[in-house]
Amino acid sequence: MSTWREIWKKSIVANSLMSRNEEQGKQQFEKLLSEYKNPKTGEDDGMIHYALAEAYEFRKKYNDAGSEYKLAQKFFPVEHWKTVAQKSIERVYEKRVSNRIPNYYKKNDFKQMIWFMFQKVWEFVNLDDFARYICLSAISRADSEWPLSLVDFRSVLELQIKNIFPEIVEEQKNIDNYSLRNIIDELGDKRLIEHEIVDAMHKIRMDGNLAVHELKTLSKNDIPNIENFLKILQFFNNYKKEVQL
């Protein structure tokens, strides 16, 4: 595994931990910052600071979040990530001074919606850490490799269904026409998920299947799939939160 992927995975774990226990999370981040220094410059890793900033923002500590986003921007080596950090700096500043969530993302702009989804995934702290990592990784390359991102989204969909509804999955395995489609339909028929979420799951499933085989999507407008996947992730996040309470 490349170092940056290892850093990203560990940062996501620390971020999740900090959402539950601030002190333990901060200790984990401090450990990561001491462990991963740039071998050439000795500087911190920007992604660790970014993940820490997201954790502070989740806890509504906007001053701390802003400081960490600025450090992330400073240490990110790529201009693209510096821009992402700048957007986050502006977002938490607006939250701090006006106590409202700013609308920095145009809902009809594919690139901006990608980064809206990126930030929202950081908020979904009840998702499995691996699922969050796959989602964030897929989103980060969605602008250039959207069909492959859809493949990852479909995989996350199936993995989360298997994780949350194992009994339904096992029941369906005993049926001749076992498939993700039938599992989703069964979840809807048993009213375990709302019809709106069933529809969103099917759309991600179908476009994910098409992307696997033909590296393309069903629609020229891919923004609805961003919205569909956000609905799905929010459902999984809320469901796991209720189970944990």
Question: In a nutshell, what does this entry contain?
Answer:
It is built from 12 helices and no strands. With 245 residues, it is mostly helical. It is globular, with a radius of gyration of 19 Å.
Walkthrough of the structure:
By secondary structure, the chain is an all-alpha fold. It is built from twelve helices and no strands. The longest helix has 23 residues, at 142-164. The protein is globular and about 60 Å long.
Write the layout of secondary structure elements.
Elements: H1 3-20, H2 22-35, H3 46-58, H4 62-75, H5 79-98, H6 110-123, H7 129-140, H8 142-164, H9 166-173, H10 180-189, H11 195-214, H12 223-244
Helix pairs in contact: 1-2, 1-3, 1-7, 3-4, 4-5, 6-7, 6-12, 7-8, 8-11, 8-12, 10-11, 11-12
Q: Low-confidence parts lasting 5 or more residues at pLDDT below 50?
A: none
Q: Outline, from the CA principal axes? A: globular
Radius of gyration over C-alpha positions, nearest whole angstrom: 19 Å
Largest pleated sheet: none
List how many beta strands DSSP finds.
0
Can you give the mean pLDDT?
89
| DSSP helical segment count | 12
How much of the sequence lies in strands comes to under 5%
Please state the structural category. Answer: mainly alpha
Helix content: over 70%
User: How far apart are the termini?
Assistant: 35 Å
Helix/strand order, N-terminal first: HHHHHHHHHHHH
